[in-house]
Amino acid sequence: MSFQLGAITLPVVAGFDLDQTYEQIGGEAIFRASSGRGIKQATWSKLRITTSGTGWIPSGLEALDYAAQMTLKCIVPKGISAVLATRQATLPSGRRSDSGFIPFGTAILSDGRHVSTPATMAGHVATLDAVAGAVAYQANYYPELTVWAMRPETSGNLSDASYQWQITCEEV
Fold this sequence. Notes:
CATH architecture of the largest domain: Beta Barrel
Number of strands: 15
Shape: globular
Strand content: over 45%
Number of helices: 0
Oligomer: single chain
């Protein structure tokens, strides 16, 4: 699995331990009417993605042009609940399709176990293979987004020859 941002594909030895956090950001607020009743107003929604890792060499992310938009190829999947009757879910167009990152399914069984199941794509619609005893399905995908990236935070530890880094990106 490879983390990619702009023209850089992170070397495995720079990111042994990778974490990725997705945060929904947007223009939303709750306003109150004179009666006190809450009214929610939402105008837009985007993702903020924070990726961090540790490795034996520096990440090299400082070499990117942070004044330009970049493509971020995520390494942690996101999931969308599928309609149980059809086992289908509509995935966003911003997703990875390179080898090792194709959409896949998860069937949830009545005893709480999760079972992997293949997904067949038709456009943006994922249809998951049926699993006996499934009570719910989830379609999973890896986001691929155009982002603005903030300059990374980096640090190192001389005694164990390790490096840590973190970078935050926001969907354009």
